[in-house]
């Protein structure tokens, strides 16, 4: 075709990006790759390879090694050997390496962009303008945290060897999101890229070694899910960080349960894109293009559910269809195409099948009319109109260029529809009325909310989900904490199984409480009889009967969870109000100090001085959380994009808490107070052995204006009650202290709704040590960060 032809018709001509350098790199390796272990390529021990294809052509691209147990072991051991040296380099030393990695990415930006487009099928326009620059920004930003680490994270230490498993939708960018914070914090890494898209990870590791990254700091083991599973199981790995499907996330949660490995999961989504009738409609149409047709819709936070206010729905549909007519699907290396190829035939088939299901279930299908290449994995931009909220395509993550649309009448209905999903990754709100947009944002159950924008990312702004979209954050200060652990928590001893020793002081002089005391449970602000009408005896260390407490069962936990759920107003109470109530609790505990001292002494056998010290520490701790309630706030980020991001601390929700037997009052307060200070509601299972400290606390709660349902207490068999809490889908998080068995049960059984867990694995905490058991160390687990991006400035 001549230039004159294009001049006359104004059609797009081909604008291919040269791929010579990327092909030459492949050729240099004879298109066959080993793993990258200890600073060099290593052939797979059993010689097995997988063939990866080029999605745009369907042709074979390269052979990658299929990692075996021996390969994974070699990589983990290289990482283990390197870790102490890497940590000892210090923040500045690591900052220089991370800076060198950012510069390396910038130097080779075009090579990475082209290789990524070839390997994944995504348009060069995106890899060039987004994936590669953002990856470089991640290293630069985290070079900064490494530099400031000794000051800003002085009380933290690296976790050790991190196993990272990433998906195929943003191969290089996910690599950067994973390894930059991990390395900055002083950990070493074994990374398993997705089997469809391992090329840029291999190129990165090779060039990182050339840029001077010490051997063993970053190791890459390629292979499919079986290799990923081997990495998860490897005992030398201290933490797993995973991004991918919710299904595999669940499997990993189960495998790591009880292993002591920490875990973060970034999983799927079905994010709403809400357009109110006062929105800038053309702006919102462009937003939709970015929300669902960016990266062929293969984006975990894709705005895949379009919620339109009824009055503008038809108008919006017309504008959207007109815009769809202009979208171009074609070869990824063409600089003027909008959508490239779907990553693999299996994904293409999945998308086709889901769209057919949508149509069968009543949706009207519209597809952009432009031609799509006849070879390779391509799928046109698709709109499913009039989709019922309960239809499969409104519920399942399609992970393709398919938008489902439905309408709403009122803002409340919009929120209801938006939250009508098991996921909670992101949401986008469009309205020219700032009051409306900022009224909706806090009501959305999502880790990221974009106002009049969508799919904005930056290293300084944490990213991650609520609910079944996983737990943990990537980016920002909170992302650094995912790769660090408190110094005071490492190196603790496993607690002795036996009951605490009987002090020689025994109970003499304490005045044992009268024998007919029978404490009930505390549910919904009232003392209630246990459902089973059974009670448990509470004995002194010498076997003296001190009283009875209710023996709670499954039904009692269910009632307590329901009471906690309905105390939702607590989450919205002002921090000032919560602070006042915590001070009031302290005041009322102080008024009953002697009674608690006697009871603790009688139950645990500690001296009166020790019992007094425990009660006094409890009073002080309540004061501390009164102080923190309005001071543990979020922050504001200024990413290099138009706008600011408000990193808001939101409560996690309903949290189950199992308390240890040591320091029964102080530990109970130390766990419950940070949670309620941040607006959570609690179902607490107090010390199994010494529950009277908590049951005596009922009166303190009753006299301190704590609203009904905010703190619920169910006494009984700790492990049995923890299991019920773990399996309960309306419990958002579970903290278990005091038992290895209960810790394991909590992690394993919480897989249903992927609740966040904080467990002590039987390692005894010193509850009197403030650094170990008070303040940000627990407050950080009492909140989840919601990042709200709002337009700001120009
Ligand atoms: P996947 O979750 O199977 O793969 C992600 C990564 O996990 C890959 O590196 C894979 O090799 C590894 N993996 C697979 N099984 C594993 C196991 N048992 N243990 C450890 N690692 C394992 O995702 P897949 O199959 O590629 O895509 C399926 C669906 O998942 C997509 O259609 C999409 O709905 C969703 N997905 C979501 C992503 C997200 O970012 N939220 C990313 C990729 C997929």
UniProtKB/TrEMBL annotation:
Domain of life (superkingdom): Bacteria
Keywords: Oxidoreductase
PROSITE patterns given in the database record: ALDEHYDE_DEHYDR_GLU (PS00687)
Residues annotated as the enzyme's active site: 266
Domain Aldehyde dehydrogenase: from-to ranges: 46-487, 538-760
Pfam families the record matches: Aldedh (PF00171)
InterPro entries tied to this protein: Ald_DH/histidinol_DH, Ald_DH_C, Ald_DH_CS_GLU, Ald_DH_N, Aldehyde_DH, Aldehyde_DH_dom
Family indicated by similarity: Belongs to the aldehyde dehydrogenase family.
Protein name: Aldehyde dehydrogenase family protein
Source lineage: Bacteria, Pseudomonadati, Pseudomonadota, Alphaproteobacteria, Hyphomicrobiales
């Amino acid at each position: 075709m001549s230039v004159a032809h294009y001049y006359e018709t104004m059609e797009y001509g081909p604008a291919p990006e040269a791929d010579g350098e990327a092909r030459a790199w492949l050729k240099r390796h004879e298109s066959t790759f080993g793993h990258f272990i200890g600073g060099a390529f290593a052939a797979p021990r059993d010689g097995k390879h997988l063939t990866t294809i080029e999605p745009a052509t369907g042709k074979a691209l390269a052979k990658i090694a299929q990692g075996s147990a021996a390969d994974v072991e070699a990589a983990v051991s290289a990482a283990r050997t390197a870790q102490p040296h890497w940590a000892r380099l210090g923040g500045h030393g690591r900052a220089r390496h991370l800076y060198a990695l950012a510069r390396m990415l910038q130097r080779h930006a075009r090579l990475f962009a082209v290789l990524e487009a070839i390997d994944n099928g995504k348009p060069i326009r995106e890899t060039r303008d987004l994936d590669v620059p953002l990856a470089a920004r991640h290293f630069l930003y985290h070079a900064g945290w490494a530099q400031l680490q000794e000051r800003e994270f002085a009380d933290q230490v690296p976790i050790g060897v991190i196993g990272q498993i990433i998906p195929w939708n943003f191969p290089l960018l996910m690599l950067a999101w994973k390894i930059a914070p991990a390395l900055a914090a002083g950990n070493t890494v074994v990374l398993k890229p997705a089997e469809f898209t391992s090329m840029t990870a291999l190129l990165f590791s090779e060039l990182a070694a050339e840029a001077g990254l010490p051997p063993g700091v970053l190791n890459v083991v390629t292979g499919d899910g079986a290799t990923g599973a081997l990495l998860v199981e490897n005992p030398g790995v201290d933490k797993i960080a995973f991004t991918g499907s919710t299904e595999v996330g669940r499997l990993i949660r189960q495998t790591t349960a009880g292993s002591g490995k920490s875990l973060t999961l970034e999983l799927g989504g079905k994010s709403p894109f809400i357009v109110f009738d006062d929105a800038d409609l053309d702006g919102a149409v462009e937003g939709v293009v970015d929300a669902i047709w960016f990266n062929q819709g293969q984006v975990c936070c894709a705005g895949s559910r379009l919620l339109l206010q009824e009055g503008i729905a038809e108008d919006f549909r017309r504008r959207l269809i007109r815009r769809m007519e202009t979208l171009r699907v074609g070869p990824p290396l063409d600089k003027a195409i909008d959508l490239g190829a779907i990553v693999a035939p299996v994904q293409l088939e999945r998308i086709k099948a889901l769209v057919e299901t949508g149509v069968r279930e009543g949706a009207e299908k519209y597809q952009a009319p432009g031609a799509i290449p006849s070879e390779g994995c391509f799928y046109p931009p698709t709109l499913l109109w009039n989709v019922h909220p309960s239809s499969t395509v409104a519920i399942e993550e399609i992970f393709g260029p398919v938008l489902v649309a439905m309408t709403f009448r009122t803002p409340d209905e919009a929120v209801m529809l938006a939250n009508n999903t098991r996921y909670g990754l992101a949401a986008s709100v469009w309205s020219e009325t700032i009051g409306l947009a900022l009224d909706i944002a806090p009501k959305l159950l999502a880790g990221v909310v974009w106002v009049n924008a969508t799919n904005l990312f930056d290293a300084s702004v944490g990213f991650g989900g609520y609910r079944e979209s996983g737990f943990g954050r990537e980016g920002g200060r909170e992302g650094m904490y995912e790769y660090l652990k408190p110094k005071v928590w490492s190196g603790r001893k496993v607690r002795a199984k036996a009951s605490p020793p009987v002090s020689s002081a025994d109970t003499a002089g304490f005045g044992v409480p009268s024998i007919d005391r029978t404490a009930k449970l505390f549910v919904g602000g009232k003392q209630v009889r246990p459902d089973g009408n059974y009670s448990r005896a509470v004995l002194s260390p010498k076997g003296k009967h001190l009283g009875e407490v209710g023996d709670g069962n499954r039904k009692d936990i269910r009632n307590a969870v329901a009471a906690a759920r309905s105390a939702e107003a607590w989450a919205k109470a002002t921090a000032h109000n919560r602070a006042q109530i915590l001070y009031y609790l302290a005041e009322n505990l102080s008024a009953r100090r002697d009674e608690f001292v006697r009871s603790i002494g009688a139950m645990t056998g500690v001296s009166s001085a020790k019992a007094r010290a425990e009660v006094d520490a409890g009073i002080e701790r309540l004061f501390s959380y009164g102080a923190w309630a309005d001071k543990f706030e979020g922050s504001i980020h200024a990413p290099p994009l138009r706008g600011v991001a408000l990193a808001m601390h939101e409560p996690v929700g309903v949290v189950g808490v199992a308390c240890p037997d040591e320091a029964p009052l102080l530990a109970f307060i130390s766990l419950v107070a940070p949670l309620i200070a941040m607006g959570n509601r609690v179902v607490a299972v107090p010390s199994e052995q010494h529950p009277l400290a908590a049951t005596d606390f009922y009166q303190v709660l009753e006299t301190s204006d704590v609203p009904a349902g905010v703190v619920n207490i169910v006494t009984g068999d700790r492990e049995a009650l923890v299991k019920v809490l773990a399996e309960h889908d309306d419990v958002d998080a579970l903290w278990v202290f005091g038992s290895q068995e209960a810790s394991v049960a909590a992690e394993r059984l919480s897989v249903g709704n992927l609740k966040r867990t904080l467990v002590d694995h039987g390692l005894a905490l010193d509850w009197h040590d403030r650094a170990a058991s008070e303040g940000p160390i627990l407050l950080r687990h009492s909140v989840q960060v919601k990042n709200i991006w709002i337009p700001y400035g120009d």
